[in-house]
Amino acid sequence: MKLVYFDVYGRAEPIRMLLNHAKVEFEDFRIGFAEWPALKAGDNPVLEFEQVPVLVLDNGKVLSQTKAIMRYLGLQYGYLPTDAYEAYLVDSYLDAFNDLMHPFALARWEKDEEKKKEILANWLANTFPKFLTAFEKRLESQGHSKFLVGEKLTIADFSFSSLISVIVYNELSETSATLRETYETFPRLKEYAHNMKEIFNDYLESRPKRPM
Amino acid sequence: MSSYKVHYFPGYGKAEPIRMLLAHAKIEFEDVHYTPETLPAAKASGNLEFGQMPVLEKDGKFYSQSQAILRFLGKELGYYPEDTYHGYLVDSTLDFINDLTNARFKANNHPEPETKKQLLADFYEKVLSNFFLAIQKRLEANSSPDKIVGDKVTIADIALAAIAYSFFLNENNLSKTEYQEVLNKFPKVLDYFNGLGELLKEYLAARAPSPW
């Protein structure tokens, strides 16, 4: 199995975390930003939508689209609930993470410094707390903060704990300290982060460190 | 018998796949619309989990995140494959449709006129072309030429029908000429969309016109 992505955490990190936890051997192929334009333009059959991450399976099939890959792997390795409503909760978490991060990502690629600061400030003051409030509520109605859904790790946990390890608890990220201040005002989410750090500690310590 | 309500704005947008799925499955539902005036009350009700719409109300319970809703209903009503790889194909279709609408939104809503013009040109020339090409390739690789995955209607067909009849083949869409100029270069995809139109003929004839 070969995972193809840039040399950052980004959208590939939940996949890396899952495969690591499932003890599945895979090649963690990282593209340099300089090589990317040529790779993208080359009508490469591996890049179905000219995007990464893609996962190349042992049978030669190529999977693209992060959430679809996560769901596929979740089914293969037992990280999806069988109950329909719990599956819905996991799915809607993944969708919500995308909604949460989309404006944050836009801020990163904004070239105008003033505009960039504005987008980020707005995201921090409004979007980030809005979603954290909703997630905190879900943990409250669940009655525990061990996992996002149910009694075991699901793809929602890989996605979210990967996310917070990259933007909230990342020494190499310049916005991390500010985000952590907001994040830790949510007690159940804070407890959840602590639980996840315990489960994934070895992986988090040994993986290559990146700012994003 | 369950009762269903779809809560959204009057446009097609992210609710249309849900409406189309229920219609195709011949399930009666109430189509609840909101305006800027009635929206604040909806947000205050606590039923919009992430402060966003659409939400699905099923027997008094609220579900958010359009893709997760589509999958939840799809599984319940027989529009989601059993096979893992087919499931992946369906999921990634939903994801790449989302990528397209995000790119469109970003281009169309850019505040700077020169950048907007450039982004839109790029959207039609590259992003939209690649989108149609990817669909064409998937149709060619599929066992049936008139379904996107497998031999029966899935939520992937429904989601593609929704975007086809909101954007490209929507009489009232302001950019329909630009869309069709690109779509006409992909006759297999146009045929496929027309086929979906046949499947949803009654629903399309009965729904109110909308530019989006």
Brief summary:
The complex is a heterodimer of chains A (212) and B (212). Chain A is an alpha+beta fold and 212 residues long.
The helix content of chain B is 55-70%
Query: If classified by CATH, what would the architecture of the largest domain in chain B be?
Result: Up-down Bundle
How many angstroms separate the termini of chain A? Answer: 24 Å
Poorly predicted regions of chain A = none
Number of helices in the DSSP assignment of chain B: 9
Please identify the structural class of chain B as seen in this structure: alpha+beta
Instruction: Report the strand count of chain A.
Output: 4
Provide the domain count of chain B: 2
Bulk shape of chain A: globular
Q: Can you give the mean pLDDT of chain B?
A: 96
Q: Which class best fits the helix and strand makeup of chain A?
A: alpha+beta
CATH topology of the largest domain in chain A: Glutathione S-transferase Yfyf (Class Pi), Chain A, domain 2
Strand content of chain A: 5-15%
Globally, the shape of chain B reads globular
First-residue to last-residue Cα separation of chain B = 32 Å
CATH structural architecture of the largest domain in chain A = Up-down Bundle
Q: Which residues of chain B sit in consecutive blocks of at least 5 with pLDDT less than 50?
A: none
Supply the CATH class of the largest domain in chain A: Mainly Alpha
- CATH topology tier name of the largest domain in chain B: Glutathione S-transferase Yfyf (Class Pi), Chain A, domain 2
Rg measurement of chain A, Å = 17 Å
Question: In this structure, how is the largest beta sheet of chain B organized?
Answer: 4 strands, mixed
